[in-house]
Amino acid sequence: MDVFPENVVDLINERLGGYNTVLGLRFVAASPDVFVAELTIADQHLQPYGLVHGGVYAGMIESLCSTGAALSVWSEGKSTVGLENTTAFLRAVRSGTLRGTARPLVRGRRSHVWEAEIKDDRDRLVASGRVRLMVLDPGAEADGETVAMKGHPNG
């Protein structure tokens, strides 16, 4: 990303969108090469055994990596969409705060690969994953509509 605004964390949190809002995700740091978000575990994040549901980890990883990739191509008027998410659940967690950190592995012209790790509030690694994303040219469509975020150069 050529220009990275100082208030990028505020901009991200203002545009979280439906799933991220329901998840309770909030970004706490963002730079061209590192994106960090947190989630306070609540009842809706737990599966029947009282453990954090694997979908929470996969969702956090998807959101972190997707946000990083999208902002990497933002200044070019492009967008990104996820193609693949591989998440490994490494340790059970029941409560507290989860903190996810994402970094780019590959930023190609047509695709990106980002990796993320999630730690609990005792700094234990609890999940890790990779997301492969496709870079879309301005005006690209998905399900019959142009892919663009509110506030995006093409939106």
Provide the descriptors you would attach to this structure in a database record.
globular, six-stranded antiparallel β-sheet, single chain, 8 strands, alpha+beta, 155 residues, two-stranded antiparallel sheet
Structure in a nutshell:
The protein is of the alpha+beta class. It has helices at 8-14, 18-23, 54-73, and strands at 26-31, 34-40, 79-89, 97-107, 111-119, 125-136, 141-142, 145-146.
Kindly state the percentage of residues in helix: 10-25%
Average pLDDT works out at 91
- Percent of residues in beta strands? 35-45%
Low-confidence stretches: none
Number of helices: 3
What's the β-strand tally?
8
The assigned structural class equals: alpha+beta
Sheet of most strands: 6 strands, antiparallel
State Rg: 15 Å
Biggest sheet: strand arrangement = 1-2-4-5-6-3
Order of helix and strand elements from N to C terminus: HHEEHEEEEEE
So what's the overall shape? globular
Q: Gap between N and C termini, in Å?
A: 18 Å
